[in-house]
Amino acid sequence: EKVAAGIRDCRAKGTPLRIDDVPFTRTNGQKGLLGLTLIPVQVRKKAFECILFGADITERKRIEQLKDEFISTVSHELRMPLTVIKEGVSQVAEGILGEINSEQKRFLSISLEGIDRLRRIVDDLLDISKIEAGKFELDRELVDIATLARGVALAFNYQARQRGLEIQTNLPVGKIEVYLDKDYMIQVFTNLMSNALKFTEKGRIEISVEDKGDMVECSVADTGRGIAQEDLPKAFGKFQQFGRPEGPGEKGTGLGLAISKGIVELHHGQMWIESKLGEGTK
Predict the structure, then answer these.
(1) Which of these, 48, 79, 195, 228, is most buried using a 10 Å CB contact count?
(2) For residues 160 and 166, is the Cβ–Cβ distance under 8 A?
(3) For the CA atoms of the chain, what is the radius of gyration?
(4) What is d(CA 123, CA 129) in angstroms, rounded to the nearest whole number?
(5) Mean pLDDT per 10-residue segment, the chain (282 residues)
(6) β-pairing, 141-144 with 177-180?
(7) First and final CA of the chain: distance in angstroms?
């Protein structure tokens, strides 16, 4: 049924389609998974047939599962030591264990920043592994998403001013209440705003919320470097980063967009990117 639906879709739209995780049974009785690519071939005006190319992806999927399990296990094991290390360094930095000089305090502050960054990386790895394992739980309530977006915009105002950027909002005056997990939706907006700040040297960032009747459309748009068209299909992949110049600076995990898309889809929503190289991203 999965393949039949893909063929119907390919014929109707006339665009290539990829279908993964199609179960099959080998002649020896062993079960496996196929990855299929459907290529449309025009046979008449506005009429298409499809050519199917298939590959056995069983081993690839097994390796991916082992990798994901490894990442999840390591991330869990890192959390507790990080908490202990941060608590110890914090107590020293605050002078609880004895007086320290300004130079020592500066180095301890740098250490705490490094610990916080490592904790964010661990949290990202745990989030993506939970999403892929179907263990990501939402705690939903009715939330005014316009107020939520306004709060995120305010939180980034200082950082934007420091970089000479303007943050604009396009938000309704009244409430738009949506049944969602507040903390995780803040995480989505925060990830998008962080990306916009990271890749915008001049201009502005705009956060918008629009009531479209049966859906609410939210967006974060910037006037930054943009993404090349050939890279757009990979933008939501894990560990993907585009447009970052070589050299020092925080590189991040490349998981922010993958996590954000996973959270949005768990809310039965959709997420997509519009971008042109040198003109910005939305």
Answers:
(1) 195
(2) yes
(3) 23
(4) 10
(5) 82 82 85 86 76 85 77 75 88 89 90 85 79 81 95 92 93 92 93 92 94 93 90 79 53 78 93 91 94
(6) antiparallel
(7) 35
